[in-house]
Amino acid sequence: MWGWVFAFFAFMLLLYVYFLKRELRKLKREVKELPNRSSFGGRLSIDFRDEVLLDLIEALNQMVDAFEKKNQQAKQMEESVKLTIAGLSHDLRTPLTSINGYVQLLQETTDETKRLHYISIIKQSVERLMEMTDHFYDLARIETNQKEIVFSSITLSNLVEEVVLSFYEQLEEKQIELHFSAQQHNYQIIADEFMLVRVIQNVVQNIIRYAKSKAVISYEKQGGDIMFSIKNDIKPDSKVAVEKVFMRFYTEVASRTNAEASGLGLYLSKNLVEKMDGKMDAALHGEWFIINIRLPMNRSQL
């Protein structure tokens, strides 16, 4: 009697081992084929309903999902960097060509007035090159997740005024009147100060390039956020396309040889704002171009 019982259990054990080894061999084949199948949604599976094996398959498939996600992100990042490099390389030619041309003219003339004019143009081209390389550096750090975000409590109006007024001479030169909100606001937001300064700088540079004569800065509390708005009047011949202003390399001047802007400033700013858990959008109301930036408010003020 016991002999038959022992034989039965031995047979069942052998049968279990046989099916287990069969599933492991199948699993081994599927793992080898996974690199070719995974991108098409292929995942590991088994026919043998063993709890330990099922847990193993689930864990392996989760690893495949995580790998797929990181691989896709890496491909998107690589493509994004390629596009940025291609666009930036194209745009770098304009200031470099300008510098080269005016250096030659500078060498050929003895007229002091002309020399000063040529030096001024060369200086502007060098500043444009510096701005473009700064934008590209920031963008590369963001898109490769190398920029560490350091959140802190910031008095928004104080920082905005400090950054905007640092452009006072350029605003004066362009005859742009600057108007701050009449009400005193001491709203505290949670953001990365370095990144926020970069955003404000980019927005002000956009105003200097495209505003007709006025810029207005205001603040508004919206739920748990503070909305910071900067609006400027636009020139009569303006061709700004609101739906494109945050696109990479978009400039109001359609020509890619536009010597004033790289087309990366607002694209970069939107990325920075979103990295700080905020939102950035633009609108066109009549003669006013408006940029709205929403950032989380310090919870102690809620």
Polypeptide structure, described:
Its EC number is 2.7.13.3. InterPro entries: HATPase_C_sf (IPR036890), HATPase_dom (IPR003594), His_kinase_dom (IPR005467), HisK_dim/P_dom (IPR003661), HisK_dim/P_sf (IPR036097), HssS/ArlS-like (IPR050398). It is a multi-pass membrane protein. By secondary structure, the protein is of the alpha+beta class. The chain has helices spanning 2-37, 51-108, 112-143, 156-165, 168-173, 193-210, 265-275; strands spanning 151-155, 177-180, 188-192, 211-222, 225-234, 279-285, 288-296. It has two domains: 2-73, no CATH class; 151-302, Heat Shock Protein 90. It has seven helices and seven strands, in the order αααβααββαββαββ. The chain has a five-stranded mixed beta sheet. The longest helix is centred in the first third of the chain and has 58 residues, at 51-108. It is elongated and about 115 Å long.
In terms of topology, how is this protein built?
Blueprint: H1 2-37, H2 51-108, H3 112-143, E1 151-155, H4 156-165, H5 168-173, E2 177-180, E3 188-192, H6 193-210, E4 211-222, E5 225-234, H7 265-275, E6 279-285, E7 288-296
Subcellular location: Membrane
Pfam families: HATPase_c (PF02518), HisKA (PF00512)
Organism: Oceanobacillus profundus
